[in-house]
Amino acid sequence: MDKGKNATVFMKSSNNKIYMELKDIIREHALQFLPAKSLLRCRGVCRDWKYLIATPFFVHNQSYSFRNLSGFFSQSSTSEPSFISLNPIAYGVPDPSLSFLPEPVDIRSSSNGLLCCQGHSGYNPYYICNPATKHWHKLPKPNNDHGSDPAVVLIFEPSILNFAAEYKLVCAFPSELDGYEFEIYSSCDKSWKTSGEIFLGNLKILPRSGVYMNGIVYWAGRNNRILAFDLSAERSQIHNGHGTLGVMDGKFCTASILRQNLSVQLLSNAYANTMQMYSNIKAWESHLFTLDRSVFAEGYPEEVSLLVNDTVILRKGKALYSYNLKTKETKHLGNESDDGKRRVVPYVNSLVDI
Q1: Percent of the chain having pLDDT more than 90?
Q2: Residues of the chain by 3-state class (helix, strand, coil), percent to 5
Q3: Which pLDDT does position 340 carry in this prediction?
Q4: Pick the residue with more confidence: 210 or 202?
Q5: If DSSP states are collapsed to H, E and C, what string results for 300-342?
Q6: CA 252 to chain centre
Q7: Cβ contacts of residue 58 below 8 Å, gap of 6+?
Q8: Residue 9 belongs to what H/E stretch?
Q9: What is the pLDDT of residue 16?
Q10: What is the DSSP letter of 56?
Q11: Would you tell me how many other CB atoms lie within 10 Å of the CB of residue 189?
Q12: pLDDT interval class at 177 (50, 70, 90)
């Protein structure tokens, strides 16, 4: 009789030991790879997890470890922002309209969990915010006039060595010399700096087309041209190319619809235009993906709205679809409202603190 009781106690103790070990493994090696929405639910599992997820060290590790595209913010010129999640169970933000900011805003750019928004009052200030935590920071007034629809690109590259979120905001603005100049805000310096570089040439860039990759900012221009600005060298150059600008396989790319196909052009050499004439090195690699017409209502998509790594957002009329370049899976995400064509901005569901 006593032996049976002791066996039961031993089994319970053994199970508790296994449970505790598994819980510790999840806490130490898995939690940091989860998105912000999932982590907010995990706080209810136990007191240890609740305190852990709130620590600056964990927040830093999560912002470095989790980089998956979680969805995108959508906004037209006449509407407030909204958020469309690629997985509503795992990814989400508490206030998609960004009403926690001190004034109504237009979303301008995003990078690894941070959004750059612009207010409507005064000097139209820029706000950098994390919509998952509702934390925000107002930037000082730029030294130059960026215009009513500024061509800004937010750059935030999480580093395991830097606990503070160090970011930059780069704006290409029209120069009085008939070209473009570049102004850069640094969160480290907490100030704006105008680059000495001036791009001279007959080029009109599309303000909300900017993409950053491998130290270079790119903007789409008219007449199938792309303006590139190297941040470290502070030098600009022109590439030939057309389509929506994006990122794939760690490289800059363009994407467009070509009949029943999705055409992706990957920039294999960012400095091809600086090479000597008749060089055999190719600047672009071509990739073609055949789309399944049966997934789309009456024909193929009309344009590419977004391309980030393996995920492409396609638009047909008011309908938005996601297409996975690896699995070839297509999903209908929803329809846009009737208040005008919306621009989509990618978002990573990160806890990054600013």
Answers
A1: 69
A2: 20, 40, 40
A3: 56
A4: 210
A5: CCCEEEEEECCEEEEEECCEEEEEECCCCCEEEEEECCCCCCC
A6: 14
A7: 31, 32, 52, 351
A8: helix 2-29
A9: 53
A10: H
A11: 10
A12: confident
Q: Report residue 300's pLDDT band, with 50, 70 and 90 as the boundaries.
A: confident
Per DSSP, the three-state class of 354 is: coil
Average pLDDT over residues 53-79: 92
Three-class SS state of 190 = coil
Lowest-confidence pick of 69-83, 108-122, 143-157: 69-83
Task: Give how far the C-alpha of residue 235 lies from the chain's centroid of Cα atoms, to the nearest Å.
Answer: 24
Spatial distance between the Cα atoms of 66 and 132, rounded to a whole number of angstroms: 13
Tell me how crowded residue 91 is: count the other CB atoms within 10 A of its CB.
Answer: 22
Q: Report d(CA 270, CA 237) in Å as an integer.
A: 10
Give 296's contacts (C-beta < 8 A, 6+ positions apart).
Answer: 316, 319, 321, 330
pTM of the shown model: 0.89
Q: Which residues contact 349 (CB under 8 A, 6 or more apart)?
A: 35, 36, 37, 66, 68, 70, 71, 90, 91, 92, 93, 113, 132
* Pairing state between β 343-347 and 71-75: antiparallel
What residue spans of 94-184 are helical by DSSP H? none
Q: Which of 88, 89, 129 is nearest to 111 (CA)?
A: 129
State the average pLDDT for the chain: 88
28 SS3 class: helix
3-class state of residue 107 by DSSP: strand
> Which is more confidently placed, 13 or 342?
342
Beta bridge partners of 197: none
The tokens of 246 are what? 């994006």
Percent of the chain with pLDDT over 70: 90
> CA angle at residue 318 from 313 to 321, to 5 degrees?
25
Other C-beta atoms closer than 10 Å to the C-beta of 112 total 20
Cα(237)–Cα(200) distance, integer angstroms:
10
pLDDT over 90 at 103, yes or no: yes
Strand partners, 185: 169, 192
**Paired tokens of 298:** 């009456």
Residue 156: phi and psi, rounded to 5, are -135, 115
Per-residue confidence (pLDDT) for residue 282, from 0 to 100? 72
